[in-house]
Amino acid sequence: MSLTDLLEELEAAKNPKKAGPMEAYMRHQFSFLGVAAPERNKLYKKYFPEAKKTKIIDWNFVDTCWRKGPREYQYVAANYLKAMQSYLTENDLPKLERLVVTKSWWDTVDILDRVVGGWCMRSRNWKK
Question: How many CB atoms lie within 10 A of CB 27?
């Protein structure tokens, strides 16, 4: 079971009837597959524990998700990073910054700010 399988399952779960209202809620900033958070969370629980065992962030996976059109893919990437945040290093901060400013909207920024904030709190360089 790989993270690529997660993307295939997400695509298979698309629901055009839900996509329209999701797009409207986000002021038509992004297209959607129509896969609601509870359904995505089930997929995360299926794939992220295995990914965490690697202790390595798969930035190719994150970049693949970020390039895709439907917003659910960015949610997958952001939540993957949240799950993997204990493995972030200072070298990952420019990559996180790129995500925050690319396809930027409150929904993904809210997730990524927790990822960055978590890194700052764990960092030895953090000054109160």
Answer: 8
Each residue of 38-74: b (16+ CB within 10 Å) or e?
ebbeebbeebbeebeeeeebbeebbebbbebebbbbb
Determine the average pLDDT of the residues in 62-80.
98
Place of tokens 């995505």: 40
State phi, psi for 126 to the nearest 5 degrees: -70, 130
Dihedral of alpha carbons 97, 102, 108, 109, sign: positive
pLDDT in tens, 76-103: 999 999 999 999 999 999 999 999 999 9
Report which of 91, 62, 56 is spatially closest to residue 77, judged by C-alpha positions: 62
Q: Which of 75, 104, 66 lies closest to 10, judged by CA?
A: 75
